[in-house]
Each structure stands twice: as C-alpha cells, then as structure tokens.
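User: I want to check something. If I give you two sequences, will you return the structure for each one separately, not as a complex?

Assistant: Yes, each is folded on its own. Here is the first sequence with its structure:
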Amino acid sequence: MRLLLNWLLSAISLLIVSRVVPGFYLRGFTAAIIAALVIGLVNATIGLFLKIITLPITFLTLGLFWWVINAFMLMFASKLLSPDFVVRGFWPAFWGAIVLSLINMVLKALARDVEKA
C-alpha cells in the first residue's frame, strides 16, 4: 500500500513541477503516473549506478552533484516518454529535479503525519 501511495505522490509532485518550472511539460495525470513509474525505475537502476561511480565528486561538491545526476535521469526519462513528458534542456531538468525533490519531501511528510493520526 505504501508503494502505491509513494507512486501517487510522485505523480502529483510531477504535475506540480510541470506547472512551476518552465521547460518541464507533462500531458495530464495518466502521463504523470507513467512518468513517475519510469523515473523511479530509471533512478533505481541507472541512477543508482551513476551515484555510486560518482561518489568522489559528490563528496567534493558536498552532495550537489546528485542534483546533476537527477537532472540527467529526468532528461533520460523524458526521452523515453516524449511527447507526453518533455524536459527541454539541462536547466529545466536541473531546477525540476530540485523542485521535485522538495515537493516529494513535503508531500511524503504530510502523508506520514496523516498516517500517524
């Protein structure tokens, strides 16, 4: 059940990011659900591998390089899901990754609080 909730919250986060970040486009809720699934799979496979091999650079940049990796993962997912999910360039992907992480964090914290109540 928690997995489905996280998937739904990620899709909602993607919809919010598409409204906030210029150059980050999503065509509807169905596309958001599919994009959330693909982004999760890409981050769990390729993203994990990249984060492991770039660990020294991540330490040197105090973790900021992870935003770059997340941006590239969003761009890769965008290439797979075009035209329903489009990220137009590195900077929209970079800012989208940051905003997506923040919104995801807030929504999951709210869901945790509701679950405890």
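And separately, the second sequence with its own structure:
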Amino acid sequence: MTAIETREADVDVLIVGAGLSGIGAAVHLKRDCPDRSFAIVEGREAIGGTWDLFRYPGVRSDSDMYTLGYRFKPWRAAKAIADGPSIRSYIRETAAEHDIDRHIHFGRKVTAAAWDSAAARWTVTATRSDGGTATFRANFLYMCSGYYSYSEGYRPTWAGEADFAGQIIHPQFWPEDLDYAGKRVVIIGSGATAVTLMPVMAETAAQVTMLQRSPTYMVSRPSSDAIADVLRKLLPAQLAYDLIRWKNVTLGMWFYGQARKNPAKVKAALMKRLEPLLPAGYDMGTHFSPRYNPWDQRLCLVPDADLFDAIKAGKADIVTDTITRFEAGGIRLASGALLEADIVVAATGLKLEALGGMAVSVDGSPRRVADCLAYKGMMFSGIPNLAASFGYINASWTLRSDLIAEYVGRLLNHMKATGTAIATPTPGPDVTPARVLMDLTSGYVARGADAQPKSGNRAPWIVTANYKYDRKELREGPVTDEMVFGARPVAAASPSFAEAAE
C-alpha cells in the first residue's frame, strides 16, 4: 500500500514537542498572542516528553519543582524533588486546564523544515506513526523538542559483550518486564540516572554496584522544602510559589557563583557534607572526589541521602575503575577484579541532537545550527522565524524556557504591530564565535559539540547562565537588536487552526 501524505494544518505558529517546554510554550502563546493560531506536533503518542519517555525505576527530577515547574502554575505536591509520574501528571494537567490537548497532533515525528522567504512560511514534513507523511505550514516555527535524541541513547560497546550471560540494558529503553529482584546489578555511569537507579534497585536486588571511571560531585538535600511547606500554609498558592521559586533561584545562583569563584573552597565544603553520610573510613578520595572543579559538570542531587543510606546498609557500593572486557559472569576491570553481574545497566548518557533531528533549509539552502550563532540563547543567525526552547545547564530547564516563551510572544506581537512577517537574527561584522552553547565538560556535551550552535563574543549573541540577567533581557530588552525584519508578502495570511482542522 502506498503511504498517504496529508496536509494537516496551516497556522501562524507551529510548536514541535508536547513535553514540559512545548506545553508551556502553548500556554504562553494563548495568553500573550490570543489572536494567533497554532498547532503542536509530537512524535510520540502522549504528552510529557522526557517525563513520558523515561520509565526506569525511581526516575525523578534533579531540580526542585518550584523552579522546574511553570511560573504560572504552582507546584502543590509535598515533595519538591518529584518523581517522573508526578511531573508527567503536572504537564498533562496543565495542558487540560488551558485546553491545549485539542491542538496536538500525536505520532508526528518531524523530519524536515523548509523556509520560503517569498511566502514567509515554513513547510514542515513529519513521518506519521502509521507510516504516512504529514505536512504543516506556519509563519513561525517554535522548537520545543529538547536537545537529545529520543530514539537513540549514547551506548558504547565493550569487548566481550557477546560472552556475557546476563542482560545489558540502557535506561532510556527500560524493559517494562525487567525483574531484578535478588539479582546482582552493575550500573555503568556516575551521572544523574545512575545516582537515581542505584538506591531504588538496591531495595530488592541482591547487590547493586555503580561502576564509574571517575567520580561526580554529589550533594544531598531533603526531598521536601520546609520553608515552602510553611509558606504554602500561610499565603495564597501563587504568592507562596513565587517566593519559594525566587528563594531557590537566588540560592542556586549564589552557589554556582561561589563554585566558579572559589572552587577549592566549595569542593572542600561538599566533601565535608558527604563524610557523615557515608560509612566510617569510606574511601571518599577515590569515589567522591572528582578531578574537575564543582560545576564544570552538573552536580548530582541525592534526595534524602538515599544513595548513601544504601551504601551504609551494604546493599550498594561504588567501584571506580575502567572496563577491560565483559565475561560470562560479569565485568573484568583494569585492576583485574571481576564485578559479578546478572544485569548490567549502561547509564552512559544521552546523544545530543539539534532541532529534533530534522533537516532545515532556507530558500533551498541547507542550514545546520552548528554553523550558526545562538541569538539570545533561542534563535539562530541566518535562520528566519525559528526559535528553540533551551533551558539552563546549571539550573532548572524551565526557568529559561518560560522566559523564551515570553520573548517569542513579544517578538510576534512586535511583528504584528509593525506589519512584518519575517525576523532573521543577523550578527554585526564584529561578532565572532566564542564557544559552543553548552560549555560544560560532561561527556555527552563533548560528544555532541557538532550539534550545538556557538555563543558569540558579545550581546545579544552571548548565551548566559544567569537567570536574573536573562529575566530582565528577555522580558524587557529590545526585540529589534540585530534582527532584520521583512515585510509581509501579499496573500500570505494563514487560516486559523480550527479552519484548517475542518
């Protein structure tokens, strides 16, 4: 049977992705630009993005929900460090409350986006889950598809894997029927996923070992926020939420600043806080003292010290070594020791992917964001009418995605007020690339450098890690600086989404 091609919507704004960023973007768009038609395309069959994709045991946020949550929707649950299902419910609840669901086209994986300057319009091609092809047309393309591949995680191969008698799995594709009770589990990795998996699996596994090449900075904090609990009892929900959010943002920025100014002092403080959480005499120098400075890579959050409790109970341990090869009974290490295992979890990270992996062209010419400069951390030099939601690496993702959504609304309203239909970020001749957009030293960032745009040497091409600066700039700063605007072509108006859906 021949695959069917359908035209599904002609709209003012097309949002790609129905996860945390995409649903938030749609809510902001409805509020700030109520006269603009829009649709959302989502490659999966459900709302939630990351929080629908990842289903491994204990999956949770590594940021507090007072900053990971939307600015406009208070987080009301008791736990500030929330599990994946709770976050997924929060996103779905937001969509339902704002009547976003009816605008979503599920099972549409975008593959290409072609800009036509003569029509001031994007034509976006998507593969449908039934094998057919769907096309969408929009004046403005708003990418909320995240920064990593949903279809492929980073998974190195090791010598001797075929000899291993057990299972090797990747957390991004967790088997629903995996039974690890009473089994010996080795988790390869030391990032947020490994730190989350270890204590949860240790509850029923015979033994869990986290195998790391090098340590990661870890910090323990309660899963609930005592100050937040008090404020929620005394104040209206939104006011309490705003105060808690600002408190957490301020503390996070202060700590990040201290880590950059006084790394040795911060490292000593982190080590001092960990020591009483671990068994007496535990080799912290080997297993918890990274070779890099704090915040050169993201810190790992350990809520309620659960990982350290599992180590104290003898149900879990950390081994710092490298892999020589797999054998039938486990993993042979460079030290010569054999880590016995029935199940190996390759918590080895993500594969970075720009713009959901779609091919982009402008007037027939292919464009790669890796060849572009990032404009205010959300648009790309030489690519018209395209914004991408991109959060913070050193703080909660949603802090910046909320700001970007507000800025997009301001830009769209400026274009309407001035009768223009095209906005192209265009750097001045003195702007030069300074670094890649994500400049941490994590392995997944280094591996995916070719998928990242560059940050420039001056504003508005500098990508900051400063929420307070971005808050003022994106809410109050000009939308016209180093932006070239184009007039609206004749007969380019799009029908509303409701009309296109009929």
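Because they were folded independently, the notes below concern the second chain alone. The mean pLDDT is 92. Residues 237-261 form the longest helix (25 residues).
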